[in-house]
Amino acid sequence: MSKARIIVDADFIISELDRRLFGSFVEHMGRCVYTGIFEPDHPTADTHGFRGDVLELVRELGPTIIRYPGGNFLSGYNWEDGVGPVEERPSRLDLAWLSTEPNAFGTNEFIEWCRLAQTEPMLGVNLGTRGPDEARKYLEYCNHPGGTRLSDLRATHGYKEPHTVKFWCLGNEMDGPWQICQKTAGEYGRIAKETAKVMKWVDPSIEVAACGSSTRFMPTFGAWEYEVMEHTLEIADFLSLHMYYENPEKDVQEFLANIEVMDSFIKEAVAVCDAIAAKQRFARKMMLSFDEWNVWYKARTLADRAKPGWPTAPRLIEEVYDLQDALMVGGALITLLNNADRVKAACLAQLVNVIAPIFTEPGGAAWRQTIFHPFKLVSQHARGSVLQARIQSTQYHTKTAATIDHIVASAVHDAAQRKLVFFVLNRETSGAAELTIDARGFPPIKSLKALEISGSDLLATNTAAKSDAVQPREHREFTLRPDTIHTLLNPLSWNLLCLSYE
Ligand code: AHR
């Protein structure tokens, strides 16, 4: 049996946690909106047409902020099409996903839905086919209190009070050739800066995120961030990052090495931002918004991304997640936590049906995919400040990320609740690991609640018929001393260790 150790000290803090780290994403794509969160004919639908079963699962999942309306969809979107009387809204061709968009669901429905889901909205402005003028008008419609044409229009649509949306994305993946009206870094940097400027004149309380690279593997990664930041460093609050993790060789240990790849991506983006800040002698640190991340490799063919005939709400990229995907998502959450000093928001992409933790059948059931569970546990338990977790562990060699520890962990201290919470992934494939946790500088530990996600079948999935095949189980193999915990970690397991102190 291998041995591992995690050492934390109450005074060694990485950062206060920004809970917007546990966000998600709703795009007008496939069945995320239609037959996902919105299905007026569904037996559980409310008077708005929102599926009650999905709302319940979203509240249980606990996303703290939700990005909308895209994604690639954003770059062709006219926000005006989605507000006002539904019978007057146009159907449009959506060039991002070769679908027909009926616009039965739009901004006001989304805001209303967010309130019911107990989450915060994050909106995007279209910098593909449109620009600063529409962006400032959209913001005026949403956030201006009243007395102008657009804010009064909102009131006539039934929303007298402003929506006060704080977080705004300046376009989406503008570096990608697949994007409607892709831009060069120079073109995008200029337009993003001017858009942010006029938006902040309309409402100085907002925060804006400039687009970084669509993935770490874009040929322009680094150079894109550098040039965009040269234009936007002073006006933007965040640089956005996107990345989806794959398992091309069906090799779980290589797959889970993507946790280090995610960490490198964050640190590389930070390095570029800090280089521009140094060059411009600019003191404020640029923060990151990792506003699209997930596992996505099974439903990646062209047929998964588009269906012929311009359908409405076709089945697109409906990835079915298995146990190893849940381990990867749990590991990615640990990485986000360990970078909490610079990553202040992140969105698991997406929320329902489309590469999502929640799956539905039209007119039928809704259930939790495997990746639902680590996300829910982190969102529920990570509050307060993230501590430096020093890890001593056996290692293994990978092609993906060289030599890495078997154990990945983060520690979050909730001083208000007198709790210290560890999220720990064991990447060893055989044999349990004997883990010791040294918690220094804390009052004596009094109890521990532990859960684990693991199992003998890495390919196990949750389905409508068997929706609980993969779920957390209570974990009782531990001993407590006043400042130490000993426990056994199963091979290929993701663990929550939540300890309370006196
Ligand atoms: O989440 C699916 C798509 O992936 C998004 O629309 C796009 O931003 C990314 O490429």
Q: Could you explain the architecture of this structure?
A:
With 502 residues, the protein is α/β, with parallel strands linked by helices. The chain has 11 helices and 26 strands. It has helices spanning 52-61, 107-117, 132-143, 149-156, 185-202, 223-232, 252-256, 258-279, 302-305, 323-338, 372-381; strands at residues 2-9, 13-16, 23-25, 65-68, 92-94, 99-101, 120-125, 167-170, 207-211, 238-245, 287-295, 343-349, 358-360, 366-368, 385-387, 390-392, 395-398, 402-405, 407-414, 419-426, 433-440, 445-453, 473-474, 478-480, 484-489, 493-501. An 8-stranded parallel barrel has the order 3-4-7-8-9-10-11-12, surrounded by 6 helices. A 7-stranded antiparallel sheet has the order 2-15-19-20-26-22-23, with helices on one face. Strand 19 (407-414) and strand 20 form a beta hairpin. Alpha-L-arabinofuranose (AHR) is lined by residues 27, 29, 70-72, 172-173, 214, 292, 349-350.
